[in-house]
């Protein structure tokens, strides 16, 4: 029976720890945040992820899943999996302080696992540096394996059991086999390569998906100028199997904890290496501009936003998660507040403890967020918003009853019939 340490109980680490415990491995999850541990040992997950709570409770009951703040508890374990955060710095560079701290702790506690598995997204080339700096001494026989994570928040458990592929990067076939053996009952192609290439797969995948989003947003912006409608355009383009329909929806652009920081991180790395990644720069710029375009659409209908009451529906960066990191909704709210608007907002799930004191009114439901508003912005396409009693919402609002459908998720014709002034993204 393999004993595994997972470092970091965030979205990636906690999912990995719970799923590995379900696969009958003995797992200890090391988390530096004692408050998180206090919740986890009681069977409470510190963020929302469908199905994770049940897996956590099952893991605790089986006694195969344990939590600790103490790295010394990893001593003697075969596999150490790193899933700590790699956020962005202001200049776009990846903040690797959490990774370095883990590597220092591994050295300090003389842990010497057989394999160190890097699940965190790290810039291509970092693994080789970490190997030389922290693992290269004659006594340490730890093999380094890059195993980038591709899960989507909101579908993380499903993505663990049904990934499109498992990517493993490393020098030693035995170490790669050992890591492969952790993915029990998962029938996905395993693609093996060197460490730096595995690191690049993760960045290239996210950069490509971000490119698809910015591309369709640009086509949408052009649609507005020529009088076309992005919804049927994107639908028909996506039917081409060479293109595919995913990530091909015009709207407020991408957000979340991965695409923004990973595109910036790859752009920074390119510049550092002397390459100007023009395509990626444009993807990032289009994404930033998409939020501003949304605010401009509001100004086009309302004139000055000063003193206008604007409701925002949705704060998370997408539905089915509580994650508000780099959410388009929050960026738009900042713009609105800067323009002097009074903002009300509602989200069914957002982790509001992470909201830095922004000066807007957080409401308990969509109807109160809409009450008295000149305009409403649909920022996150939660099903409960799509299925709202829009007739009742309209009656709560005031002229010009503007609805900015930032996700093109509402029926424009129905909204007009109900008395709204409907504005979408990429359509007249
Ligand atoms: N969230 C996603 O959807 C997703 C998907 C794929 C890949 N990734 C990547 O996976 C990594 C983790 O992402 P996340 O969203 O789970 O991050 P997160 O910020 O939610 O979680 C990281 C956790 O690690 C803990 N931690 C940090 N340093 C530690 C240390 N020295 N010892 C113990 N615990 C420590 C933090 O307290 C936190 O709980 C990142 O590199 C990210 O880019 C994330």
TrEMBL record:
<feature type="binding site">
    <location>
        <position position="121"/>
    </location>
    <ligand>
        <name>NAD(+)</name>
    </ligand>
</feature>
<dbReference type="InterPro" id="IPR028357">
    <property type="entry name" value="UDPglc_DH_bac"/>
</dbReference>
<keyword id="KW-0520">NAD</keyword>
<feature type="active site" description="Nucleophile">
    <location>
        <position position="258"/>
    </location>
</feature>
<dbReference type="InterPro" id="IPR001732">
    <property type="entry name" value="UDP-Glc/GDP-Man_DH_N"/>
</dbReference>
<dbReference type="InterPro" id="IPR014027">
    <property type="entry name" value="UDP-Glc/GDP-Man_DH_C"/>
</dbReference>
<dbReference type="InterPro" id="IPR036220">
    <property type="entry name" value="UDP-Glc/GDP-Man_DH_C_sf"/>
</dbReference>
<feature type="binding site">
    <location>
        <position position="261"/>
    </location>
    <ligand>
        <name>NAD(+)</name>
    </ligand>
</feature>
<dbReference type="GO" id="GO:0000271">
    <property type="term" value="P:polysaccharide biosynthetic process"/>
</dbReference>
<comment type="pathway">
    <text>Nucleotide-sugar biosynthesis; UDP-alpha-D-glucuronate biosynthesis; UDP-alpha-D-glucuronate from UDP-alpha-D-glucose: step 1/1.</text>
</comment>
<feature type="binding site">
    <location>
        <position position="202"/>
    </location>
    <ligand>
        <name>substrate</name>
    </ligand>
</feature>
<feature type="binding site">
    <location>
        <position position="86"/>
    </location>
    <ligand>
        <name>NAD(+)</name>
    </ligand>
</feature>
<feature type="domain" description="UDP-glucose/GDP-mannose dehydrogenase C-terminal">
    <location>
        <begin position="311"/>
        <end position="412"/>
    </location>
</feature>
<feature type="binding site">
    <location>
        <position position="36"/>
    </location>
    <ligand>
        <name>NAD(+)</name>
    </ligand>
</feature>
<feature type="binding site">
    <location>
        <position position="153"/>
    </location>
    <ligand>
        <name>NAD(+)</name>
    </ligand>
</feature>
<keyword id="KW-0560">Oxidoreductase</keyword>
<protein>
    <recommendedName>
        <fullName>UDP-glucose 6-dehydrogenase</fullName>
        <ecNumber>1.1.1.22</ecNumber>
    </recommendedName>
</protein>
<feature type="binding site">
    <location>
        <position position="255"/>
    </location>
    <ligand>
        <name>substrate</name>
    </ligand>
</feature>
<dbReference type="InterPro" id="IPR036291">
    <property type="entry name" value="NAD(P)-bd_dom_sf"/>
</dbReference>
<feature type="binding site">
    <location>
        <begin position="150"/>
        <end position="153"/>
    </location>
    <ligand>
        <name>substrate</name>
    </ligand>
</feature>
<dbReference type="Pfam" id="PF00984">
    <property type="entry name" value="UDPG_MGDP_dh"/>
</dbReference>
<feature type="binding site">
    <location>
        <position position="318"/>
    </location>
    <ligand>
        <name>substrate</name>
    </ligand>
</feature>
<dbReference type="Pfam" id="PF03721">
    <property type="entry name" value="UDPG_MGDP_dh_N"/>
</dbReference>
<feature type="binding site">
    <location>
        <begin position="247"/>
        <end position="251"/>
    </location>
    <ligand>
        <name>substrate</name>
    </ligand>
</feature>
<dbReference type="GO" id="GO:0003979">
    <property type="term" value="F:UDP-glucose 6-dehydrogenase activity"/>
</dbReference>
<feature type="binding site">
    <location>
        <position position="325"/>
    </location>
    <ligand>
        <name>NAD(+)</name>
    </ligand>
</feature>
<dbReference type="GO" id="GO:0051287">
    <property type="term" value="F:NAD binding"/>
</dbReference>
<dbReference type="InterPro" id="IPR008927">
    <property type="entry name" value="6-PGluconate_DH-like_C_sf"/>
</dbReference>
<dbReference type="Pfam" id="PF03720">
    <property type="entry name" value="UDPG_MGDP_dh_C"/>
</dbReference>
<dbReference type="InterPro" id="IPR017476">
    <property type="entry name" value="UDP-Glc/GDP-Man"/>
</dbReference>
<comment type="similarity">
    <text>Belongs to the UDP-glucose/GDP-mannose dehydrogenase family.</text>
</comment>
<dbReference type="InterPro" id="IPR014026">
    <property type="entry name" value="UDP-Glc/GDP-Man_DH_dimer"/>
</dbReference>
């Amino acid at each position: 029976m393999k004993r595994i340490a997972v470092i970091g109980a965030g979205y990636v680490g906690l999912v990995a720890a719970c799923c590995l415990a379900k696969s009958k491995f003995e797992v200890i999850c090391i988390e530096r945040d004692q408050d998180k541990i206090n919740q986890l040992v009681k069977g409470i997950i510190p963020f929302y992820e469908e199905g994770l709570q049940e897996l956590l409770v099952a893991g605790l009951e089986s006694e195969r899943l344990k939590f600790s703040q103490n790295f010394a508890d990893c001593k003697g374990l075969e596999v150490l999996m790193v899933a700590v955060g790699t956020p962005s710095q202001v200049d776009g560079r990846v903040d690797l302080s959490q990774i370095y701290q883990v590597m220092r702790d591994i050295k300090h506690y003389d842990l010497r696992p057989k394999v160190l598995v890097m699940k965190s997204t790290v810039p291509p080339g970092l693994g080789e540096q970490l190997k030389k700096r922290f693992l290269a001494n004659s006594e340490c026989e730890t093999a380094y394996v890059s195993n980038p994570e591709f899960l989507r928040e909101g579908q993380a458990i499903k993505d663990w059991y049904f990934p499109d592929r498992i990517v493993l990067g490393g020098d030693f076939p035995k170490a790669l086999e050992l890591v492969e053996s952790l993915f029990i009952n998962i029938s996905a192609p395993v693609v093996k390569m060197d460490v730096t290439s595995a690191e690049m797969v993760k960045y290239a995948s996210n950069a490509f998906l971000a490119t698809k989003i910015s591309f369709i947003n640009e086509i949408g912006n052009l649609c507005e100028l020529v009088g076309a409608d992005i919804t049927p355009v994107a639908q028909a383009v996506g039917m081409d199997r060479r293109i595919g329909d995913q990530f091909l929806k015009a709207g407020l652009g991408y957000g979340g904890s991965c695409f923004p920081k990973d595109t910036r991180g790859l752009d920074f790395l390119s510049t550092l290496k002397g390459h100007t990644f023009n395509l990626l720069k444009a993807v990032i710029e289009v994404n930033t501009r998409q939020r501003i375009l949304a605010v401009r659409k509001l100004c086009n209908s309302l004139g000055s936003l000063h003193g206008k009451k604007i409701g925002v529906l949705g704060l998370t960066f997408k539905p089915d998660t509580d994650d508000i990191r780099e959410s388009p909704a929050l960026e738009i709210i900042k713009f609105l507040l800067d323009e002097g608007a009074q903002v009300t907002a509602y989200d069914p799930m957002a982790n509001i403890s992470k909201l830095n004191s922004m000066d807007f009114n957080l409401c308990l439901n969509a109807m109160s967020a809409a009450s008295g508003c000149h305009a409403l912005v649909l920022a996150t396409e939660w099903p409960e918003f799509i299925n709202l009693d829009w007739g009742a919402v309209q009656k709560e609002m005031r002229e010009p009853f503007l609805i900015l459908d930032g996700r093109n998720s509402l029926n424009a014709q129905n909204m007009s019939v109900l008395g709204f002034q409907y504005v979408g993204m990429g359509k007249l």
